[in-house]
């Protein structure tokens, strides 16, 4: 399956709000750590090595 | 003597002594404030035959563009009230918006891609014109006998609520007088004196940011689109900027200045001109001649009253709820408050519905206010990130949105006003298109030579599409009008039938859908009417 770069997320505004709320009250380093954990959790969910490689390329 | 709180754009309701001032008269509905909400409510009530008295402490429409962006739903309401045509004629019709990040476009949207609506998605029109058009519709209604009165330079100084009415004290150029009202509706703005006099709270979030409005008059050939910049590439624009056209060759320019500013200094014309010059020259290469018409610095809050009903005192519009301007959810939601309230007050005052119907005004419009506050808060959080991490995510979204479509729906420069679909609605036995599910406002569609919304009568309506004409229906003193459209247009079928060959809709007087079925069912219609009238179910 190729990397999805078209809109694929229902309720983007709600997700964005929840994402920021998860960071509320955290220091910068705590936020960085949260982001790192989140990326690893999402990577496991995706579970497709080729897609993850493509995602890394798209984000750089 | 009453001093003026603001200058007028149009003097429309000059003060005149009335016999009421020498007695203590009782009125069914007294409306405080003749802004867009108070005028729409008064007009709607009087067209239904219920007398409306409006008390306003000035004598007309105040100076300044203020609300400039009116949604299709508001225009549909204004059209029903006989005021829509001049608004659409004068207003600047637009439906395309572009979002830029620095000097690159990241996003573009079209608000009304589907044809077959009488009114456009949005018009830009300065608030004084909107108020004047409503007032002229009021004058036409008065000429036909509609019971409506506006008293200028009548400032409410005391409100004394009782169990079955409200006593109001009023100051005028001829001195004070008092009157009584069965119902008092406070449409007196975000700083509502009525709310203050009753000691009621208005809690919410303050957003620590200042926005500068500069309305400039110039002839420029920018397209009539909404242009919004994050991190604008021109000097002095602050963190974001907006360019939008109004009638009379006036352009609304908005700059986000941040929190720590010296207000009086930022309002100096030379300083404003420097910012405007930089913006215009970045777009055209030169600075066209222009005139500063109106400037203002505003901050904003997202908040609402906990309850919009306090016995016989009701709050509507900015007095009840306040949002940021991004999304055009202020005046538009206020007009929808008026639209929701007018038919309910009319039926309760006639004794055709119980007092509980007014509770549904409060609960439905509180729900709408929550939706508006949620959308407005999210847009504001995106536009003015409060923490380093939220700025990082915001900039990441903008960066990705330039390259990848998936990030564009996350770009939020204001989610534009759409009518609330009420959660508490009647049954959906049709299971038809979601846009017309119970609770939603009726979507327009072509019908014959005209449009659906103009065919719907002023009361409750049974709308039958395809199938057979429905038989007469009524509940108590309330007769239900019927409209049968046996051969729907393609648009009407797509928006109201879906896969079904026929449908019957029960539509409320404010053109929200109460319930829908594939075929007429007398008992189901009666149940839905009872629910729409706020009657509590018998257990």
TrEMBL record, chain A:
Pfam families: DUF2783 (PF10932). This is Uncharacterized protein DUF2783. The lineage of its organism: Bacteria, Pseudomonadati, Pseudomonadota, Alphaproteobacteria, Rhodobacterales.
From TrEMBL, chain B:
The keyword Flavoprotein applies. It holds the Pfam family FAD_binding_3. Keywords: FAD, Flavoprotein. GO terms for molecular function: FAD binding; oxidoreductase activity, acting on paired donors, with incorporation or reduction of molecular oxygen, NAD(P)H as one donor, and incorporation of one atom of oxygen. Its cofactor is FAD. It comes from the Bacteria. SUPFAM superfamilies: FAD/NAD(P)-binding domain. Residues 28-372 form the FAD-binding domain. This is 3-(3-hydroxy-phenyl)propionate hydroxylase. It comes from Jannaschia seohaensis.
């Amino acid at each position: 399956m190729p990397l999805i770069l078209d809109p694929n997320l229902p309720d983007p505004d709600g997700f964005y709000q929840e994402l920021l709320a998860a960071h509320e009250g955290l220091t910068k380093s705590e936020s960085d750590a949260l982001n790192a954990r989140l990326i690893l959790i999402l990577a496991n969910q995706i579970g497709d090595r080729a897609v993850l490689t493509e995602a890394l390329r798209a984000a750089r | 003597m009453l001093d003026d709180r603001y200058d007028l754009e149009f003097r429309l309701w000059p003060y005149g002594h009335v016999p009421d001032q020498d007695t203590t008269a009782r009125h069914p509905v007294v409306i405080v404030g003749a802004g867009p909400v108070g005028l729409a409510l008064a007009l709607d009530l009087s067209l239904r035959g219920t007398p409306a008295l409006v008390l306003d402490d000035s004598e007309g429409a105040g100076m300044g563009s203020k609300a400039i962006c009116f949604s299709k739903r508001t225009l549909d309401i204004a059209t029903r009230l006989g005021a829509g045509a001049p608004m659409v004629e004068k207003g600047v019709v637009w439906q395309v918006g572009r979002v830029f990040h620095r000097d690159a476009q990241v996003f573009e949207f079209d608000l009304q891609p589907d044809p077959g609506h009488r009114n456009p998605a949005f018009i830009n029109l300065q608030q004084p014109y909107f108020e004047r058009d409503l007032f002229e519709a009021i004058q036409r209604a008065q000429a036909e006998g509609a019971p409506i009165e506006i008293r200028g330079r009548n400032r409410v100084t005391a409100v004394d609520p009782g169990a079955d009415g409200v006593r109001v004290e009023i100051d005028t150029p001829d001195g004070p007088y008092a009157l009584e009202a069965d119902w008092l509706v406070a449409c007196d703005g975000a700083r509502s004196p009525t709310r203050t006099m009753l000691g009621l709270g208005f809690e919410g979030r303050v957003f620590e940011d200042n926005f500068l409005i500069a309305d400039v008059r110039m002839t420029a050939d920018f397209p009539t689109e909404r242009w919004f910049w994050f991190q604008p590439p021109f000097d002095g624009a602050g963190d974001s900027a907006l360019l939008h056209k109004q009638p009379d060759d006036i352009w609304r320019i908005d700059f986000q200045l941040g929190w720590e500013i010296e207000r009086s200094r930022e309002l100096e014309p030379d300083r404003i001109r420097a910012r405007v010059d930089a913006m215009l020259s970045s777009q055209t290469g030169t600075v066209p001649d222009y005139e500063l018409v109106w400037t203002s610095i505003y901050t904003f809050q997202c908040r609402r009253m906990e309850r919009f009903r306090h016995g016989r005192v009701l709050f509507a519009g900015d007095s009840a709820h306040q949002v940021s301007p991004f999304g055009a959810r202020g005046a538009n939601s206020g007009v929808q408050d008026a639209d929701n309230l007018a038919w309910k007050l009319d039926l309760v005052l006639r004794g055709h519905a119980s007092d509980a119907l007014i509770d549904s005004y409060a609960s439905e419009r509180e729900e709408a206010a929550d939706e508006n506050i949620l959308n407005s808060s999210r847009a504001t959080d995106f536009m003015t990130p409060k923490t380093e991490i939220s700025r990082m995510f915001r900039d990441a979204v903008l960066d990705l949105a330039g390259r990848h479509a998936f990030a564009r729906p996350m770009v939020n420069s204001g989610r534009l006003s759409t009518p609330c679909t009420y959660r508490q609605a009647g049954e959906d036995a049709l299971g038809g298109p979601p846009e017309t599910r119970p609770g939603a406002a009726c979507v327009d569609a072509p019908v014959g030579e005209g449009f659906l919304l103009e065919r719907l009568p002023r009361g409750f309506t049974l709308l039958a599409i395809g199938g057979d004409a429905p038989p007469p229906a009524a509940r108590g003193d309330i007769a239900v009008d019927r409209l049968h459209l046996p051969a729907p247009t393609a648009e009407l079928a797509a928006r109201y039938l879906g896969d079904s060959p026929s449908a019957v809709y029960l539509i409320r007087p404010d053109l929200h859908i109460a319930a829908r079925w594939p075929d007429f069912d007398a008992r189901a219609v009666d149940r839905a009417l009872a629910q729409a009238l706020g009657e509590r179910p018998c257990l």
